[in-house]
Design goal:
The structure holds two protein chains of two kinds. By secondary structure, chain A is α+β, with helices and mostly antiparallel strands. Helices cover 16% and strands 16% of the residues of chain A. The longest helix of chain A is centred in the N-terminal third of the chain and has 10 residues. In chain B, helix 17 crosses helix 23. The chains are: A alpha+beta, B alpha+beta. Chains A and B meet through helix 1 and strand 1 of A and helix 3, helix 6 and strand 13 of B. Bound molecules: iron/sulfur cluster.
């Protein structure tokens, strides 16, 4: 319903930030509120993450059960990975100048007040 | 205290700048900050719709850092009342302003041509809006959505044709289902040739240096409290749940308040809407509760069974204003009326009061079919009402030309003040509950809105107050809310955030406010606005209540004019004392 509780939870629990802009999940309408639907942009935990080849410095590595892990010290801040994500689920931390990735922890799910989100093994 | 960042936009010369206002630190945010910015920018030598007059938008100082802190406040010189205009809106605006690194926006001047304002990270672009000028508010949003980025992290404000035509009770729609509804902000947008405004940003600066563990703890406790506590009722049925209890107590204004009881209340109750029409709920960004109830309206838009479904939001005030007040007992027809006010961009409460006055004035022969350009109008005539609203926007006959300024102007020419449901030129909200509601909205309330001091809720406690006690309680609540509306916390969460919590959450964000100081802050804000109202003509000694409020029993009893007069006298003493106390 667009309350963004999941986004606040991700920013707070994962990024230790009070800024909702740090969330790795983004809620938006599916073409305006009057369309009657919301969608969540979030990492799908791809087995073969298409964002990885976009990284010129090797800062992205495959995560065991899908998705990726960021090696922050290798990142040069080129934002190419953002282009590389087909579902637009990589965001940008303006303060740290680093990409924001989902870590598949499920904090967003546990703060959804109306059971709109689910997490499971792929 | 944080130094507020103000974005100033001048549409006449297309300039803008961002300014840190150290001197306004104590104004906090929301209504406190907006009041100071408004007073320093308004010019009483010119009328409300003069291009020099400002539109001030201010995000609450706790928005969007804690649950249900979602609001932003608009202040303007109201073309409807020629006095203070203040309106509160939710949606994503408060959040989007903070993402853009702005605490408040001040817009002055007038664009030469229709425009929309695009704000991104405190950079401003004034873009042409010719293609959407003349379009419904709903359609113009689609245009902006396609043109601008940051879906999900932006807020889109827009007006309908009512605002373009500067109707005194036109509104600004915020993110489809929230509004700056009251007192004519739409006309201010129209007068400056602004069709829409979109705000977003990267969020740089949104992060702040706080005691993070404490923040997290308090946030999460509040989150739990909101979703499990007494607020829950707002999620389940929303405010529409009040239809039946208010009808039961004879306080649901019906057919221009000829009665407080609607015989078809069951059919238009929150329960009936939920069971038969509700399709989903929405929330303002940052509110885990979500009180925005959406219903489906089936619309046959052409012959040969051509149907569409439209999603319309409803709540108590809308069902009152566009249901019982104008005698409509069919839920689909109420939704149709709501949709019509949304598309044209009209304040629904005022629209209901306006239509119900026209119906009775026509019944009484004060208006003719030539005036309203319609054979006849009677309570419950949805099609007739839709036609009147179209005429209001497009007709240039004498009646509609005056009507665009509001009922206060119409009654001067056509009579009928005594059944015009006005509280100091604003339209009354849907609670004919008793003295506290009437006096709270007409006299004490700064915006003449029911949420100023919640007199209706005091009445519903069912206690018999003497005038002095009642005035004390109304002023106390009004002053508290003057502070509360600085925070940006939605008034529905008024009881979740007690004094202690307000102090605590403020402190976490670096606002050191002592509990005993809250009254002081609220009093000063209230007085600043009250003085502005006096300067623009509010004269408590010459205030005349429409008779209808006394003719129709409020709750189970008729209101006595003597009691009201005593309360007004009491208020005069109290306000003078307050002015002396604060050297106003
Ligand atoms: S309770 Fe309703 S109006 Fe208030 S913040 Fe939540 S969704 Fe918005």
């Amino acid at each position: 319903m667009g309350c963004m509780s999941c986004m606040f939870a991700c920013a707070r629990r994962v990024r230790k930030s009070i800024s909702v802009a740090k969330s790795a999940i983004r809620i938006k309408t599916k073409g305006g509120y009057s369309s009657g639907n919301m969608v969540a942009d979030h990492c799908l935990g791809c087995e073969e993450p298409p964002c990885i080849p976009f990284c010129p410095t090797g800062a992205l590595v495959k995560r065991k059960n899908g998705g990726i892990i960021l090696k922050a010290d290798l990142c040069n801040g080129c934002k190419k990975c953002i282009e590389g994500c087909p579902v637009k689920a990589i965001f940008w931390d303006e303060e740290k100048k680093l990409p924001i990735f989902c870590i598949h922890c499920g904090n967003c799910v546990s703060f959804c007040p109306h059971n709109c989100l689910e997490i499971g093994e792929l | 205290m944080k130094i507020p960042k103000i974005l100033y936009i001048n549409l006449s010369d297309k300039t803008y700048f961002l300014k840190e206002r150290e001197d306004l630190k104590e104004s906090l945010g929301g209504t406190g900050l907006a009041t100071d910015l408004f007073i320093e920018n308004v010019d009483l030598n010119y009328p409300p719709l003069d291009s020099r007059q400002p539109i001030v938008l201010s995000s609450g100082y706790l928005t969007p850092y804690f649950p249900v802190a979602t609001k932003s406040i608009a202040l303007f010189y109201s073309p409807l009342t020629n006095s203070l205009g203040e309106s509160h809106g939710g949606g994503r605006l408060g959040l989007a302003m903070k993402l853009a690194g702005i605490d408040a926006i001040v817009i002055t001047g007038k664009s030469e041509k229709p425009c929309y304002i695009s704000i991104y990270d405190s950079n401003v672009n004034i873009k042409p809006a010719d293609p959407i000028w003349g379009l419904k508010a709903t359609e113009s949003a689609t245009y902006i959505r396609d043109k601008e980025g940051m879906a999900g992290m932006r807020s889109i404000l827009r007006i309908g044709t009512a605002g373009e035509k500067k109707v005194g009770f036109s509104m600004v729609i915020v993110d489809t289902y929230r509004h700056f509804g009251r007192l004519g902000l739409g006309a201010l947008f129209g007068s400056k040739n602004i069709k829409a405004l979109v705000v977003s940003g990267t969020g740089i600066g949104l992060d702040r240096d706080v005691d993070f563990e404490e923040y997290k703890k308090v946030f999460e406790e509040l989150h739990k409290k909101v979703i499990s506590g007494s607020m829950r009722k707002y999620h389940e049925y929303g405010t529409a749940l009040n239809i039946l209890p208010l009808n039961e107590m004879n306080a649901l204004p019906t057919r221009n308040l000829k009665s407080g009881c609607f015989e078809k209340a069951e059919d238009i109750s929150g329960e009936a809407f939920a069971e038969n029409n509700m399709t989903r709920k929405f929330a303002c960004a940052g509110c885990p509760l979500g009180c925005i109830h959406i219903a489906m309206r089936r619309n046959k838009f052409a012959n040969e069974e051509e149907w569409e479904r439209n999603e319309v939001s409803y709540d108590y005030e809308l069902i009152y204003a566009l249901g019982s007040l104008i005698g409509i007992d069919d839920r689909q027809k109420i939704l149709k009326m709501i949709e019509c006010t949304e598309e044209l961009g009209l304040d629904a409460i005022y629209t209901g009061v306006f239509l119900s006055w026209i119906t009775e004035a026509f019944e009484k022969g004060l208006l003719t079919s030539t005036d309203i350009e319609l054979d006849k109008i009677q309570f419950g005539d949805t099609e007739g009402y839709m036609k009147i609203l179209q005429n209001l926007i497009y007709s240039n006959n004498k009646f509609y030309s005056i009507a665009r300024s509001g009922l206060s102007e119409l009654v001067k020419i056509y009579g009928g003040y005594d059944f015009a449901l006005l509280v100091n030129n604003n339209a009354v909200a849907g609670y004919h509950t008793g003295y506290a509601n009437l006096i709270g909205q007409s006299i004490v309330g700064i915006r003449n809105a029911h949420t100023d001091n919640a007199g209706y809720s005091l009445d519903q406690e069912g206690k018999e107050f003497d005038p002095k006690t009642m005035i004390d309680l109304l002023i106390k609540e009004e002053i508290f809310r003057a502070f509360f509306n600085c925070t940006g916390i939605c008034l529905f969460a008024r009881k979740v955030y007690d004094m202690g919590l307000l102090v605590k959450v403020s402190e976490i964000l670096g606002y050191k406010i002592k509990e005993d100081h809250i009254n002081h802050i609220g009093s000063k804000i209230y007085l600043k606005k009250f003085i502005f109202k006096e300067k623009t003509g509010f004269d408590i000694n010459n205030y005349k209540f429409p008779e209808r409020f006394f003719e129709t029993p409020a709750g189970k009893k008729r209101l006595s004019k003597d009691f009201v007069q005593e309360a007004v006298n009491e208020f005069k003493i109290r306000i003078e004392r307050l002015k002396r106390e604060y050297n106003f």
